[in-house]
Structures are given as C-alpha cells and as structure tokens.
Amino acid sequence: MVDAPDVVLRALREAPPDQLAEAVDRAIRSALGAVRTDVFVADYRISGLWPMLDPDLPAAGFLACHTVAQRCFSSQQPVRDGAEDGACRLYLPLTVWGERLGVLLIELPSAPGPVVAGHATEIAASLAVAMRAAERETDRYRRARRRERLSMAAEMQWDLLPGRSVAHHAFHLAGQLEPAYTVGGDHFDWSLDGDRLTVTVLNGEGSGLAASMLTAVTVNAMRNARRSDGGLVEQAELASDTVFYQHRGHRHVATLLLELNIGTGRVRAVDAGSPHVLRLRGTVVEPVTLEQQLPLGMFAETRYELQEFQLAPGDRLFVVSDGVWAAEPAGQEPYGQRAMARSLRGTRLQPATEAVGTVMRELHAYHADSDLRDDAVVVCLDWHGPRERNGG
C-alpha cells in the first residue's frame, strides 16, 4: 500500500487515453482495497457533476453522491462521507494548475488513516493531469461534459479556450461563457510566462458561425504575436491588420488586452473598444477607466497605445462583455447600471472560480431565467500580491 500512488501512476501511463477512469478504478481497488470508485466530470455550465463509470446510477444514489461531490468541487477540499454499512467515501477534487475538471470518488471499507488519505490525494492529482493531457487524443471527456448538443460556433469557441481557470501563488483567474451551448463570438484567452500574465477578452461581433470564425482569427493573430515575444501593442496591431485585410473594415472586434506583472500588480492595457473592467476593492465596486481606442479590424494599420493602472493586494478585477453589461431584459435598466455591482459585491468571499458562476447565475435570474439575448463572458482575476507580502 506504501507505493499505491506509483501503482496508479503506472496504470495511467499504460492506459489508452479514453480508458483512464477504468484504469484508475482497477488500480485503486488493487492498491487501496477500495470497493468502488467513480470519476465525476463538470459540465460546460459548471452546473453539475456527472459520473463516467456508473452513468446509470439510481436517482437516489446519484443525488446523494452528487451533493457531496459538488461540495468537494466548490470548496476544492477533500470531503468524507460515511455509508450505512460503515464504509467511507472519499471525494477528492480533480484539479490541475487551478483548472477544475471534476471529482474522484473512492469508497473504502472503513475510514482511512492519514497515509491512505494522503495516497488518495496524490492519486487524484495524477488522474487530473492525465485527463487534461488525454483530451487531445479522445473525445470521451468532452462528451461527458455536454448535457446537450453544442452549436458549431460553440464547438469552435470551447476548443479555442485556454481553460476555465488557472491558479498561482500570486493570482487566481477564471472565466465563463454563456450561453454555453450556443455561444458565438465572445471569448477570453490567457497565458502565463514568468512574471507576466496576459489576459484578453473579446466582445465578439455578430452571432453564430461567422462570429466564431472572426473570433478565432483574432485570437490566433494575438497568440501569434505573443508567442513571437510581441507585447500588447504588437498583439493588438497584428490582430487588427489581420481582421481588416480579411474583411476590409466591414467586421471588427472590440477587445481588451491586459498584461499583469504578477510581482508588482502593475497592469498594462490596450483598450480596443473593449469589454468593461470593474475593480472590487473590499466592498467597493468601481470601473477602471481606460481610454477607448478603435476596435480591432476597423481600419488599416491602426496603431494602439498602452495605458497602465495599479492593483493593490487583494484586488479583484472583473471583465465583462456587452452581453453582461448592457443586458436589458423585458425593458429593465441595463444589468451593468446597478444590479451587476450588487452581484459583484456578493462574490467577495468566493474564490474566482465560484465568482464567475455567481455572476452568470445572477445574470440569468435578471433575465427571469429566459434565454440570454446576447453572448456573455465574465472573467475574474484576483491578485493576491507578491509572495513576500503574503508571508510565503
């Protein structure tokens, strides 16, 4: 039992990419004496967790497991749950670099000691890394996440995303797209490189496949410049020129480009007719005022200028698209006018991963749960401050 994590890691390395859940089930049963395991995967809306090994779990059993698994997923902490026969169920978060994938369930004949519990935590970490890598080679985990069929535009958008969250000692970052199964043009992207975190948020123009294709061209142009060591200005200008020469000014993309120095909290920005930026400091929500420049692709050879602002340790930034800010269901005032600030303040005790879901749920409630009329993107960035200030 001492080498249980090694046994499971070897099983994961030898398994086909679509059989990780089965491989880890066999290895855990053998190495830890488990009587049952399952892998719960979060859906695209992060509204539920769904079993991969036992999809026909009876309703009562599913609801009981799902409730505890959801608590584990939300808290990102292991949770124990006793069974009537004396068995103990361990629920462990499946998370890699802050990206929440789901929950691993391990049912043992009795309550585990600290050594077995530690082994179980290591196993969950190894499984999460393997699942993230396997997504390039199989569709199984993507199929498990979808509760309905994606539109073609949404298929492109989800494949283009870097992930839905990332964690670092200096920051936490999360984003969410809605409507999850039919989103068209709104998008976000990010990349961490040393002490530099680059975040871009696009308020896509139009709807459907045409909007998704425009966003894909824009995102990949910015990535091309960034991966060639280009700064924010070069990223914006290459993307703008690419879109203009493709569409001759008839299509353009409002975009915000941010670059955070994670050691100092200094933020560089290019506001290309951008989505809206709001800062939550304590209980106060206030807009970050930037000078808007032309959207990407509106004119040939548009040139952009950098702006800067400073974050304080503990600051939270929200970036929202017009689908959030300007939502006006049933003749109500725009969501961004007052209701959104209340929603943002309500997230201050939640991690960024939960905060984006809260804002989206509040947006749906503002629409009286009717379908959103426009794509909506919410990105939440928490800057904790440099390590030395946090005593780390």
From TrEMBL:
Keywords attached to this entry: Hydrolase
Source organism per UniProt: Micromonospora vulcania
Tagged with keyword Repeat: no
Superkingdom assignment: Bacteria
Enzyme Commission number(s): 3.1.3.16
Keyword Ribosomal protein (UniProt): no
Name the record gives this protein: PP2C family protein-serine/threonine phosphatase
Domain PPM-type phosphatase, chain residue ranges per copy: 168-383
InterPro entries linked: Bact_Sigma-Reg, PPM-type-like_dom_sf, PPM-type_phosphatase-like_dom
SMART domains named among the record's database cross-references: PP2C_SIG
GO molecular function, one term: protein serine/threonine phosphatase activity
A Pfam family recorded for this sequence: SpoIIE
